[in-house]
Each structure stands twice: as C-alpha cells, then as structure tokens.
Amino acid sequence: MTRSPFAALLLLALAGGAAEDPFDGDGAFVPRNAVDRAVLAELRKRRIDPAPPCSDAVFVRRVFLDATGTLPRPEEVTAFLWDRRPDKRARLIDALLEREEFADYAALRWCDALRVKAEFPINLWPNAVQAYHRWVRDAVRTNMPYDRMARELLTASGSNFRAPAVNFWRACAGRDPAALAQAVALTMMGVRIESLSAERQAGLAALFSRVAYKGTAEWKEEIVLLDPAATGPLDAVLPDGKKVTIGADTDPRAVFADWLIRRDNPWFEAAVVNRVWAWLMGRGIVHEPDDFRPGNPPGNPALLALLGQELARSGYDLRHVYRLILNSATYQQSPVPRSDDPRAEALFAHYVVRRLDAEVLFDAICAITGTSESYESMIPEPFTFLPEEERAIELADGSISSPFLEMFGRPTRDTGLWSERSNAITGPQRLHLLNSSDIQGRIQRGPKLAAVARGARDGQGAITAVYLLVLSRPPTPPEIEAIRRYAREAKVNPRQTLDDLVWALINTKEFLYAH
Questions:
Q1: For the segment 138-190, what is each residue's pLDDT rounded down to a tens digit?
Q2: What's the pTM value of the predicted model, to 2 decimals?
Q3: Would you list the domain boundaries of the chain?
Q4: CA–CA dist 337, 352 (Å, integer)
Q5: What residues pair up with 376 in beta bridges, in sequence order?
Q6: Among 212, 210, 256, 266, which Cα is nearest to 234's?
Q7: Which residues face 224 on adjacent strands?
C-alpha cells in the first residue's frame, strides 16, 4: 500500500532530538595555512571564537558537494571514515580536484556568471551555447591559467560557432558599448558599473565601442570583429582613471586586457579569488561577490589580499586557490558556531550553512533513487534534447530547465549577477518535497532503493545503507531505535519503512543544506 508522506513526518517526529551530535570533530581550531592565520587574526581582533573542526562524516559530504556538486557514494564515505592516515582530507581534496565532476560543477558556476543561455534576452542560440560551454569546461578541466582565460575572452574575434570565446561579447543583454562595459565590469572586476562615476562609465564603454557583429550565410552564425569603419584614434578612460589614446591599428579590448591582468591591478585578482571563496564558503569576503565598491569593503582585507597574492604567485592557477581554501581549518570548521556575535558569519568563524543549489539537489535525489530526468527546450532547435543520463550540473544552456530547477531557484542567466540564484527555502519547495507524486514515484520505483532493500542482511543494515546513501553518514544508535519503534507502531513492512525513511531524510535540513 502506498503511504502518504505523513508517515515520513511521523518518523521525523520520533527521531527528532534523539540523535547524538554528528557535526563536531575532536579538538579546537588550529591554523593549518596562511588562510587560517589571516582569518584567526581578524577573529581575535573582534574577540570572536572560531568553531572547532567538523567531523569526518560532515567533511566528506561537504567537500564532495562544494568541489564537485555531487554526493559521495556510500562506499566512498565508508572508505574515508575507515581511513586512518592523518593526511586523508588533503588526499581526498587532491583527488576531487582531478575528477570530471569538478570540471562540470565549476563550469556550471562560470556559465552562470558568463550568462550562457540560448534564448531571450541573451540569444546565444543552441550551437553557440554548446561551443561556449565546452570551451569554458575545457578551460577548467585543463586548468587554464586565469589571466590567459580572461585575456582570451576579452580579445576574441571570429565565428561564434568556431571561436567559442567570442560568445563572451554576444552573451550580453545589449550590444551597445555601455551594455558591453557593464558585462565586462561585472564579470572581470566584480564591479556593478553603476557604482563608477559617469566619466569612468563612459570611458570604459569607449574601450568597447569598436566591437562589431556580422551575420553569415550559415543559420544563426555570427562574426564578432572590430568595426572596420573606425579608422581614427580612440580616446578612452580606464577604470582607474588613466586616460589613454589608442591608435586605429590597435584593438582597444587588448589595451583593456593588458591593463586588467597587470600584477598591480586592484580588481582582477581580488574579484576572481573572492568569487571562488564565495563558491566554497557560501559568501564572499566582499559580499555579494560581484559588488566591489568603496561602500562595501571586504570583511577581512588581509585575507582577500593573501588569496590574490597566492593566485599571482601560482601563475594564476585557480585550482591552487581551491586547494588552499579546501585544506584550511577555516573551511573545515563545524557548521555549529561557538559565538553569537552577529559578525561571526561574515568573518568566517564557522562554516556557512546554505541550501544546496537547485541542480545539485535534484542530482542528489536522482542519485539516491537511481532515477534520471529528460531535459528539453521549449523551442526545438539543435542540441536542445539531451540524454536522460545527463545530470543537471552538466546542463550547458540556461534556457533548458525543468519545473524542479525553476522552483528551487536556478538562475535565469539574464544578468550574470550572483543574486540571480536563490537558495532560500520556500513554502512551495517544502510542499513539493513532502507531497510531490514525482518524488513519491522516484522513491517507490527507483532501482537504487530496491537494491538496498534486497542487499541488506537485516533491518539495521538497511537503515545504515539508507543513511549512507542520503546523508553520507551512518545513523546514530538513537536514530536506529526511533526508526525501529516507528516500524513497530505504524505496522509497516521493511520496504515501506525504507521508503518512509528516505522521504523523511530528504526533507531534513541535514540533506537539503550544505553544512
């Protein structure tokens, strides 16, 4: 008999408050690298206590989700928990940064910022979206130095199908110089152009006033080029106020790129390391990470400067920055704060808890149940019908979505702003997870849970398998007892107990949130 989700809610009520604390590890906060020393110095100045380290079970789930957007498999969790090597966390970090899922998830985040979308208002069109996404993912996978990546995006010319980086200049809501300057400032400098003076806005726009577009005989192909009609010198103003005169034979975009990636540029390194920090830590040192301006200073200037220096010293190796942050005691803190100071979160005195991204959450539900999803565009053009095994974090096109992804705050990619993505829990989201026939069907008919039920030696083994699958940790003894009591009192069979348990667990904050 199919049971309602209220059975799962009953199980939650029985288990509520009975669990031992699975979140904190042993010991106190001990600095592990320069990141921690910068964080701890600021916390001591404010008399804020940092949180202790998180447990191994929390860490393995956290680092898989933050680095790859993917839940660890149960066997990966148990292998990590049984590993007694003192450097096992660093080993896991190194392994995750080489996985294909790391490239998939980092590309997803970059494509949010770069507005990779086929349809209105960006209108890249499907062929160009696929080429652009592939270029971005390859840049991440091969660990292209970030200064080179930025320069290739800023100076690209040619066909949007055959020179994918030129789509940077097409993925804008407008094609006038002001719109192009707005996109460049936001993406490359973390600056919302309206925060600049009118003179500097106009000066920056002048640098992109010679970008031109030309169609071809091939359907929806477009060439990005320098305006051949512009034959005289160009006067412009760089964002730091320096006035430049650019000859007719020089690409003004190259002049801007040369200025941007200089070692003494105050925006370039800070903007990208702050973005990576926000991706891993839940908020930026400057927050929001695309709002650099005098009225929004960094919470920890020394930390921001340190990360920028590390990026430059490493040859603009973004994976080095990932590794530095993930190995820090700051990243590996418990999500449970030790201080009630309202500044604790902004100064990273604990790990910042936040709801999983829509794509990550849906992929996790599919992984738990062994199910998949079909994605398609409402406008049937090439590359808009995708194989069912493709995960949501692999979606190239911001125009291809689903009701679940839209309900759970996937960004529209219209502007590239950080705030386009919403990870707030809403009433409709709660109702969907509790009452959706789609969720019910995935739990009841998914092959993964059927395999768990068949493979478990006893009830406790099945419960443990479900916890490892859903929460990436073993259940505590009080949780096991609560589940057994529920099964007795509700008089349900073992498979129904597992179904109700899964439904209960995917409605917990422990599942829905990175912690």
A1: 999 999 999 999 999 999 999 999 999 999 999 998 999 999 999 999 999 99
A2: 0.95
A3: 6-21+357-514, 117-260
A4: 9
A5: 385
A6: 210
A7: 158, 213
Other C-beta atoms closer than 10 Å to the C-beta of 215 total: 10
Rounded CA-CA distance 109/323 in Å is: 17
Output the pLDDT for position 111: 98
**Closest among 117, 60, 52, 113 to 83, alpha carbons compared:** 60
Q: Are 168 and 154 spatial neighbours (Cβ–Cβ below 8 Å)?
A: yes
DSSP lists the bridge partners of residue 211 as: 226
pLDDT tens figures, 469-508: 999 999 988 888 888 888 888 888 888 889 999 999 999 9
C-alpha to C-alpha distance for 132 and 221, rounded to whole angstroms: 13
Query: How far, in Å, CA of 186 to CA of 192, rounded?
Result: 5
Alpha helices (H) along 156-263 = 167-170, 177-189, 198-207, 252-260
Alpha-helical runs (H) found in 74-222 = 74-82, 88-96, 100-114, 126-141, 146-155, 167-170, 177-189, 198-207
User: By C-alpha distance, which of 58, 130, 69 is closest to 357?
Assistant: 69
Identity of the residue numbered 78: T
Cα(454)–Cα(498) distance, rounded to whole angstroms?
11
Q: Which residues pair with 513 in a beta bridge?
A: 355
First to last CA, the chain: 35
Within the chain, how many helices (H) and strands (E) appear?
24, 7
The residues with which 384 forms a beta bridge, in sequence order, are: none
Retrieve residue 290's tokens: 């695309």
Tokens of residue 201, six digits: 């806005």
Burial of 75 by CB count in 10 Å (0-12 exposed, 13-18 middle, 19+ buried)? Answer: exposed
Q: In which element (H, E) is residue 459 found?
A: helix 459-470
Label residues 429-445 b or e (16+ Cβ within 10 Å = b). Answer: beebbbeeeebbebbbe
Spatial contact of 150 and 114, defined as CB atoms under 8 Å apart = no
Separation CA 480–CA 474 (nearest Å): 10
CA gap 471, 356 in Å, rounded: 13
